[in-house]
Design brief:
about 90 residues; 5 helices; about 55% helix
């Protein structure tokens, strides 16, 4: 089975930045992997589940989480670390 195309990515995610689309295509992910990563990126952040994913799935989830700004940062608890300031 071949990897996803730009049209596949746009069909699942909608309009997003072309750079994100190209990076998703570069992962070589399959359509089922793309759909699963999209579901994970939209769901509540679970850092331990994220680290248990294979590297390609982690990359996909990270890319898609960035492409879905209404979801907020994928791992909100990381922004509460000491020494990490929020941008004004």
């Amino acid at each position: 089975m071949g990897g996803v195309t730009e049209a596949d990515v746009a069909a699942v995610i909608g309009r997003i930045d072309e750079i994100i689309i190209h990076e998703v295509v570069r992962t070589g992910a399959s359509r089922p992997e793309l759909r699963r990563a999209y579901a994970l990126a939209k769901g509540p952040a679970d850092f331990s589940a994220h680290t248990a994913l294979p590297p390609r799935m982690r990359r996909l989830v990270d890319l898609l989480a960035v492409a879905l700004p209404e979801q907020g940062p994928p791992y909100g608890h990381l922004s509460t670390m000491k020494g990490v300031d929020r941008a004004a």
